[in-house]
Amino acid sequence: MKFFNFHLMPYADIDVNLIREHGSAWVTFPNSHYDPQVGSQLYNRYLDEMEYADQLGFDGVVVNEHHQTAYGLMPIPGVMAGALARSVKRAKIAILGRALPLVSNPLTIAEEFAMLDNITEGRFIGGFVRGIGAEYHAFGVNPAESLARFQEAHDLIKRAWTEPGPFEFDGEFYHFKYVNVWPRPYQQPCMPIWAPSQGSAETISWAARNRYTYCQTLGPIKSVAGFFQQYRDEADRFGYEASWDQTAWSTTIYIAETDQQALREAKPHAEAIQNEFLRMPLEMLLPPGYTSLESFRKIQPEMIGKPQTIESLNDAGVIIVGSPNTVRERLAEYQQLAGFNTALVKTQFGTLPADMTRNNMTAIAEEIFPTLQG
Fold first, then answer.
1. What is the pLDDT of residue 326?
2. What pLDDT is recorded for position 297?
3. Which of left, alpha, beta for 292 (phi over 0: left; psi -120 to 50: alpha)?
């Protein structure tokens, strides 16, 4: 199994009661609650943690994109990936991913990813997403156009990387007389592309058709297994057999000496991210037109419901919290159940402070890697 350190970079130093009072940490949560002094310290702390992950032997580090939210402070993930491109010496660097439908010029993402691929000498992994529903409120983009904009932007970027330029592109949403991206990707014909999703049927089919690694987020392990099987079924339909290397699971891991200690220590921070940072009204999460009825039926039960406890999250296999033995056993069990060879591990989550994050990262490297990594 490969282990990537996946960092959301939340605004961790916050009173979660403020989020509760406003109903959500997304879009309408006043930015007057952001203290630039605190934010500056968090950015540098989080970059240090990603560099520490490289030193500990994680196979990769992962950043992502969200907008107008305390949930994650990376509206431009390329800034963070660029900062890490020189300081992370060994691990791969992944952006999972860039929200293609939100940009007016997808070629800027083609340029951004190609630059990162060159600076890292081919250690870069790109990711494409549609962005969650809240992003469309933040950008004023019509969610009913999301899928079509996503697919057209992807096709433009892929051609820009792989087809000699200049050439003309005239699509429904994007029009360019000259497509001639400099620099070209370091990895030829382009860097690996991963497709994160919460379980959208359209995304799963699209990822399988393009033979991209499919990354499942935010779900109980039994649901994850079902989505991975759906991906493999789609691969069969497109004429090939998908390997476990083409599926990656995003989860949270926290380790302490005993199960009870781990649950006790992680409880306020895991429940903060699940019940406060992630919470938003249904119309913000899934605005009309954003997703098909089939996908809505699959996603909605996983994402919306009563507040969760760390015990319920742990029991359902949304997260893995416990002693080293417990974490090792459950990871191995879940790998066999769902069929994946990459774990995208959130070692920091919610309001987890720096000292606990470092201790957790060290415990994962020392207690889990020797048995499961490789």
1. 98
2. 61
3. beta
Are 54 and 314 contacting, i.e. CB atoms less than 8 angstroms apart? no
With cut-offs at 50, 70 and 90, classify the pLDDT of residue 288.
Answer: confident
Residue pair 137/99 in contact (Cβ under 8 Å)? The answer is no
Pairing of strands 175-179, 167-170: antiparallel
* pTM of the entire predicted model: 0.94
- The Cα–Cα gap between 114 and 306 comes to 43
- Dump strand ranges (E) for the chain: 2-6, 60-63, 92-95, 98-99, 124-129, 167-170, 175-179, 193-197, 213-216, 247-255, 319-322, 342-346
Q: What is the mean pLDDT of the chain?
A: 94
Which residues are registered as beta bridge partners of 176?
A: 169
Q: Extract the tokens encoding 248.
A: 């990656």
8-state DSSP, 156: H
Instruction: Look at residues 204, 4, 195 and name the one whose alpha carbon lies nearest to residue 96.
Output: 195
Q: Model confidence at 167, in pLDDT bands (50, 70, 90)?
A: very high
Structure-token pair, residue 105: 């010029």
First-residue to last-residue Cα distance in the chain:
5
328 CB neighbour count, 10 Å cutoff: 18
Say yes or no to pLDDT of 333 above 90. yes
Residue written as token pair 């083409």:
246
pLDDT at 305 over 80: no
